[in-house]
Structure formats: C-alpha cells, structure tokens
Fold this protein.
Amino acid sequence: MANVVITGSTKGVGRGLANEFAKRGHNVVVCSRKQADVELAAQEITALGGGRASGAVCDITRKDQLAALWDHAVAAFGSVDIWINNAGRAIGRRLAHELPEDEIDIMVEGNLKGTILASQVAIDGFRKQGSGALYNVLGGSYDAKRLTPGMSVYSSTKAGIYLFTEYLKAENKDQNILVGTISPGMLISDNWFTEQKQLGEQEWDDIKPTLNVLCDHVETATPWLVEQVLDNDKHGKHIAWLTGGKIARRFFEAKVLGRKRDLFSRYGL
C-alpha cells in the first residue's frame, strides 16, 4: 500500500488520479486552495471504499505551505511514497503578444514555480526518508514537436517543467528516488471547459471533430495512468497516455473506417 500526495487534486485530472489510487487501496493526500473543496474531496474519496484520503489546504506557490503539505501527509499516513505535481492552469486562445500580464503570472507562478517548489520539498523529503517517487505532469507542446495554437505561455511553462525534471533525474539517479513525468493527454477537465467557453460557435463546430479524436474523459485515462505509476520501477520513466501512434490510429479509425466518437453530448455540446 502506497501513500500518495497529489497537488491540485480536488477536481479534474488530479481528482481522477486520486480516485484511482484510492480504489486500489492506497492512501491519498489531496490539496487545493479552498478548505471546503479539500474536505469534500477527502470525504468522497474515502467513501469509495478503498484507501483512506486526507486533505490539506495548500498554495503551491508558497514553499512553507508545501512543506506543511508534506508534514500533513507524514502525520496522516506515516510516510510519502509517491508525490505527483499535477496542479496548474491552462489559459490561452490568444497570440503570445496579446496575453494579459495577470494571466502570464498565473501560469508561470502556478505551473512552473509551483512545480519547482513542490519538487524541492518532495526530493528533500525523499532524501531524508531514504526513498520515494516524484512525477511531474507535462502538457501541451512541452517538447515543441507540435505547437498548440494560442497556448504559447502555457506550453512554455510545461517545457520548463520538462527541462527542470531532466535535472532532477540527473541529480537523483543514485539516491533511491524515482523521478519521472506524466503526459495525461487531452482530457476533458475543468481547465478544458474554461478554454472551450472562449470559442465562438463556428470555431467550436470546426474544431469539434478533431477534438472527438484527440480528447478523452478523465475516467478513461486515469486508471491506466495510475497503474503505470504503481508498476513503474524505472528512474526517468515518461508515462504518456496519448502517444503519436495512438493519435495516428484514432485518425485512421475516424477517417478511413468511419468509427466516430461523440465525447461531448453528455455535456450538451
């Protein structure tokens, strides 16, 4: 049984991961900035009937609060075996030179600085503890192989996280600490809906067929992602749900075989 800390885990992808760890009998510490959200998520996850859940309020841009999150997890469950840095915001749909400064601050502070500070706390704790596994969540065009229109700053923060994690991998390869990354793919979460609401009707109609190919529901991907984390014993592992091969296969099935997916009717879209 593992004890798992997941940042940004009261909703969306983080909550999906937390649910799946708990269903498999593992203990989970969830966090967000709102006490009510933390309490509700911990109650609902515990009610699933697997592992126990505990929650703590945490602003990931504050290192003292991240240190308190570590201490909370140790007090609740005795140790931290897995720490997943999932918290972050995706704000886009604007050209790079048009993005407002306050939105830039939110993404750079929350995505990049928050992941750096949380990684410091986790690695320091794992070194003192003698073991542990850290995973940083990547996203949209982090490797610049495919640019996502309108997501320049968000993608840049994820590229920064990728490079920072490469340093962590090199620095901890002989420390009995696993460091890896997770690419969850294009999952329909709260962040996703925030972006979708900015689209005009025609723009949505134009992009919807492609998104039906590329996107997935959170509950579709997170069981597989959690199993990959639990089964992994390789330092430097990159766990990716939406691979290039999977993308090619889905487009082939949609365009050649006529197998259409309808992911959005459940949301009235």
Remarks:
- The mean pLDDT is 94.
